[in-house]
Amino acid sequence: MRSILHCDLNNFFASVEMLKRPELRNVPMAVSGDPNKRHGIILAKNQIAKKYGIYTPETVYSALKKCPKLVLVKPHYEEYVKYSKLVNEIYRKYTDRVEKFGIDESFLDVTESINIFGSPYEIAYKIKEEIKQKYSLTISVGVSFTKSLAKLGSDLKKPDAITVLDYDNYKEKIYDLPVEMLLYVGKNTQTKLNKIGIKTIGDLANSNKYRIVKHLGKLGEQIYNYANGIDNEEVKFYYEKSERKSISKGITFESDINDSVTLEKELLKITSNIAFSLRKMRFKASVISITLKDNMFISSSRQKKIDYTNSFDVLAKNVVELFREHYTLGANIRYICVGASGLRGEDDNEQIDIFNMLENKENIKKDKRKKEVVDAMDKLKEKFGDKIDYASAIEIKNKNTPLDN
Ligand SMILES: [Mg+2]
């Protein structure tokens, strides 16, 4: 059985602001998107503000109605990113399996660390105390044998607390809780479940799996399993930010090719390799380039700035565009190359993290489904190498199950 921790920084943005301005500890305060605009959104609040019933995300307008003397503070994203990294460095002292789940949450698999650092509870306690002592920030920790239960555990007691859900006690601790406390049970899913009489996690666990699948599809199976303590999803490894600034791949043909359809196909194959490598290293690229060499090996390159991505669809679209702008019809080509540069870590976009926090769980679920398809294809590629043709795989996927609806 695995030992997994879910560590969640409490009132993270608000706590960081209070480090800089301790006087904010004694007043109701909240960090908000745009304090000057009444339709700005509350991103985080301190404990005092919480007592007024202020929640995240709600509008500044409605928060001020509840508490007119609420002190509003602008967010300082660089600071949050800085502390997030420092805290994750502490996690990484205990295991190399640290998976960031947003800017203020991480999963840790400490199964292999028990011999060195003590029981999962002891590890959670050490981590919690070290963060408090070093950075004056508190976390709540869920300790369990699956990711989804660890995540649920960290919600049960906060701030500055540890909740253990082990195999022998998890049922009595979670079965009476409302079903929407489960990971990926958003508003829509909750409504559907409530409609068929499922209100608590216990109701879901004891229901008929096929009935749930009938109403909710694949997600139904997933949450049914979560409620029953079944969740094999692994905690990913934390990858150091590499110094690597670009990757490129090219091929030399045995003879000249002057047919643009064939050349595009070959470019797409390489692009799928690039996308695969980026995802494997957990990078995103902001520049895409192509290089063409003719039979005299005279080379010419073109590049283009794009929004950070490691998605094949986006990279492919831009590669094809560059090629069509650049290639002179009928020219003899001996070598082609695709490059991706301006790289940064997949998790480094604090803005996206913040939006993820605000978006409801249904949206995370959607992203997750898209990610699942891509991950599945990556696994196939790992197994079968270049035999997997991303371009047609994605086309087929799009025809059968549109990813974006
Ligand atoms: Mg948090």
Kindly provide the radius of gyration, computed on alpha-carbon positions and rounded to a whole number of angstroms: 25 Å
Q: Considering DSSP H and I runs of 4 or more, what fraction of the residues is helical? A: 40-55%
Determine the CATH topology of the domain at 240-405.
Dna Ligase, domain 1
Secondary structure tally: strands: 13
Distance between the termini: 36 Å
The CATH fourth-level homologous superfamily of the domain at 240-405: DNA polymerase, Y-family, little finger domain
Bound molecules: magnesium ion
Discrete helix count: 16
Tell me the name of the CATH class of the domain at 240-405: Alpha Beta
Low-confidence stretches: 349-364, 388-405
CATH architecture of the domain at 240-405: 2-Layer Sandwich
What is the string of helix and strand elements?
EHEEHHEHEEHHEHEHHHHEHEEHEEHHH
SSE-based structural type: alpha+beta
Notable features of this structure?
405 residues; alpha+beta; MutS, DNA mismatch repair protein, domain I; DNA polymerase, domain 1; Dna Ligase, domain 1; five-stranded mixed sheet; five-stranded antiparallel sheet; 16 helices
What's the layout of helices and strands?
Layout: E1 4-9, H1 12-20, E2 29-32, E3 42-45, H2 47-51, H3 60-66, E4 71-73, H4 77-92, E5 98-100, E6 105-109, H5 114-117, H6 120-135, E7 139-144, H7 147-156, E8 161-165, H8 170-174, H9 187-195, H10 201-205, H11 209-227, E9 246-257, H12 260-281, E10 283-294, E11 299-309, H13 312-326, E12 333-341, E13 344-345, H14 350-358, H15 361-384, H16 390-400
Parallel strand pairs: 2-4, 7-8
Antiparallel strand pairs: 1-6, 1-7, 2-3, 5-6, 9-12, 10-11, 10-12, 10-13
Helix pairs in contact: 4-6, 12-13
The structure holds magnesium ion.
Magnesium ion binds next to strand 1.
